[in-house]
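DATA SHEET
Item: assembly model
Revision: 1
Owner: S.N.
Input lines:
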Amino acid sequence: DAKTTQPNSMESNEEEPVHLPCNHSTISGTDYIHWYRQLPSQGPEYVIHGLTSNVNNRMASLAIAEDRKSSTLILHRATLRDAAVYYCILRYGGSQGNLIFGKGTKLSVKP
Amino acid sequence: DAGVTQSPTHLIKTRGQHVTLRCSPISGHKSVSWYQQVLGQGPQFIFQYYEKEERGRGNFPDRFSARQFPNYSSELNVNALLLGDSALYLCASSFSMGAEFGELFFGEGSRLTVL
C-alpha cells in the first residue's frame, strides 16, 4: 500500500488559516487522497477527498500537487473545535474500501 | 438521523475470555468495517463486510472474526482475549465500497480493557 508522511504535530492560532501537509510520493494513478480527523474521545470523521483536482467543501479545501506526490489540507479559519489528529490516507480506487491510517498530525489551536 | 451506533461503549474482560461487539450502520448503508485503535496509534483495519460477505481482512489473528446480518448490522468477536487486545474498537459504515464514493462514517467505538 502506498504510504503517506505527515508532521507529527502543528500549532495554529484561532481564526487563522491552517495548512496541513502530506507527502505521498509512491501514490498510484488510482489512489484517492482522503483526509479524516479524530477529535478526542471520538471516532474518526471524514473531512474531504480528491483524486487530481483541488476540492472544496464546507469543512476544508484540499490542494493536490500537479504530480500528485503531495497534498495540503487547508482549514480556512481554525477554531478551537478543529483541534484534533488529522490523517492523510491513500485509498485504492477499486473495490477495496479499507483505510490505512498512519499516525497523523496532531493539530493544536491556541485561542 | 441516527449515526453509526456501537455497543457496549465500555467493557472489561479478563485474559482468555471472549467478547462480542455490535454495530448498527446508518440506515441504507450496506458496508461495515471494523478497526482497532490502540492508545496513541491510528486505527488499524480488521474486517470489511459488504452485502453480508467478507470483502477484506487485515493482519489480525484468527481469534478475530466478524459477520454481517441481513439488516446490515454487524458483530465483531474476539476469542481467547490477550492483554494486547485492549483497545478502542471502531465500526464504520458506508453506502458502497469504492474509494471514489467518499466517506466512511465512524461510530464512537467500544472501549475494551483486558485485565
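QC remark: Residues 12 and 109 of chain A are 5 Å apart (CA to CA).
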